[in-house]
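Q: Mind making up any chain with structure tokens?
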Amino acid sequence: YKEESDLSQSFLDFNKDLPPLIKNGVEHHLYQYEYDIIDKLEKETKYLWIKKATGLGITELILRYIAWKALNDPTWVNSQVVIITGPRIELAVTLIDRIKGLFPNKPFETKNTVVQLASCRIEAFPSHHLDTARGLPNVKFIFLDEADFFPVSQQEDARAVAERYIAKSDP
């Protein structure tokens, strides 16, 4: 963590209150490239495509960012977040479980592909079942996780779903 980083301090404080980032039994801090991603999302662009090596923790970072925004950004009140995963329902369930795991003392009453944080509904959809991801009224964030690995037809469908919301709710 660099003191001179201009990353929003409120995200840093929020992240410090969450369970630590642990991978293969080793606790990790946020790395500079992760600060850069949050800074870009907050200050530079809403549309970010990250082509990266595997294992860098970007999914975890984005899930934490989504949780922070859902709980702290007044423009996210009564809104939705769409997470599109690969074609297995288990991937969708796993990402929602990871968000729920950020709050170990909070009971969640939602189904396994949905988590409600404050009034923001976060839902994960497998890439082969995107029909219900269309037509949501107030989408604030769309996350396509590992989309390069979707079958090509599902990549096209996921991108079409995501890009339709640009005109509708400008997520």
Q: What stands out?
A: The mean pLDDT is 89. The chain has five helices and six strands. The first helix runs from residue 9 to 16. The beta strands are 21-23, 26-28, 80-85, 114-117, 120-126, 139-144.
